[in-house]
């Protein structure tokens, strides 16, 4: 379902209503907003942080504005001590994109009172209640909520189409991404979407997510000025290979412990027996050990498995 809300009503809210005591903010973000005001930068992009879909969406906004030489300020937006509406009451800002998030209830609506246009992208069903009724939405506020497509894919399509529609001298057509990396990038988006929508249908999706997760600490474009170049280099096959290696190493470590399984009588046998293993100092392998013990317990005709640490049962898993 794609939801785009555009109405033709305008309600004026005095800017003074947005001002208040400012709590802690990222000084770097505030400084960037101050410089944007001095330089009269009209385009503002806020992306969900630390979200991969948000970061890739910001990448596509960056590519679009770069291709057309349009000045643009891109900032991460975190739900932890987030930037507030009054932080954006700076001279020169005209268009604001909220990528992979809707923001607190009323956030986008308030931005639309002093921005020429506010455009929102998200894919989460939980965002739907935050969207104001059509009759309360001004014509310069647009919500693009597609619960069947990840935000990064929607934003990629949006800016690709928007760029293709631009009339350039000599009939030149600019592409958002170069042909040599397009297929690789779109495969990354496909895997990300599988995780964002909780489909888990693609082969090796678990390994992909494990490999991708190491990038999470690098998704702040303020502290990592090379973020967008790095995102363009990400390859799904490399991430899957890293994920598989990680999974394999954990399973190998768990297997060494599983060679020392023993039977445990529960309640002096009243509750039956299970296989156990001493996993002292290896609690981080509980998932791998628990699953393997369940399988072995079932094969031995036992109903549950146990992981032991210092003679205490940590995990009991029924094998039906």
From TrEMBL:
Protein name: DHHA1 domain-containing protein
Organism: Nelumbo nucifera (Sacred lotus)
Phylogenetic classification of the source organism: Eukaryota, Viridiplantae, Streptophyta, Embryophyta, Tracheophyta
């Amino acid at each position: 379902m794609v939801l785009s809300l555009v109405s033709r009503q305008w309600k004026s809210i005095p800017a003074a209503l947005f001002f208040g005591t400012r709590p802690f903010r990222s000084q770097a973000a505030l400084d960037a907003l101050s410089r944007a005001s001095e330089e009269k930068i009209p385009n503002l992009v806020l992306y969900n942080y630390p979200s991969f879909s948000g970061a890739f969406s910001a990448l596509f906004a960056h590519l679009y504005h770069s291709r057309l030489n349009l000045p643009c300020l891109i900032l991460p937006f975190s739900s932890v001590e987030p930037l507030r509406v009054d932080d954006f009451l700076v001279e020169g800002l005209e268009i604001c994109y909220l990528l992979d998030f809707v923001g607190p209830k009323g956030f986008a609506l308030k931005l639309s009172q002093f921005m020429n246009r506010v455009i929102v992208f998200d894919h989460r069903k939980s965002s739907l209640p935050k969207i104001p009724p059509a009759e309360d939405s001004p014509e310069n506020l647009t919500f693009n909520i597609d619960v069947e497509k990840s935000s990064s894919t929607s934003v990629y399509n949006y800016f690709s189409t928007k760029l293709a529609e631009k009339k350039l001298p000599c009939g030149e057509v600019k592409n958002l991404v170069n042909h040599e990396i397009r297929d690789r990038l779109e495969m990354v988006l496909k895997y990300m979407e599988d995780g964002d929508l909780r489909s888990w249908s693609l082969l090796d999706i678990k390994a992909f997510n494990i490999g991708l997760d190491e990038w999470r600490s690098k998704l702040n474009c303020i502290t990592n000025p090379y973020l967008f170049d790095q995102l363009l280099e990400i390859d799904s096959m490399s991430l899957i290979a890293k994920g598989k290696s990680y999974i394999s190493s954990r399973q190998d470590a768990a297997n060494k412990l599983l060679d020392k399984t023993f039977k445990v009588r529960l309640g002096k046998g009243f509750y039956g027996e299970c296989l156990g293993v001493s996993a002292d100092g290896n609690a981080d392998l509980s998932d791998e050990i628990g699953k393997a013990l369940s399988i072995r317990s079932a094969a031995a005709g036992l109903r549950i498995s146990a992981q032991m640490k210092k003679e205490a049962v940590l995990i009991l898993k029924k094998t039906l």
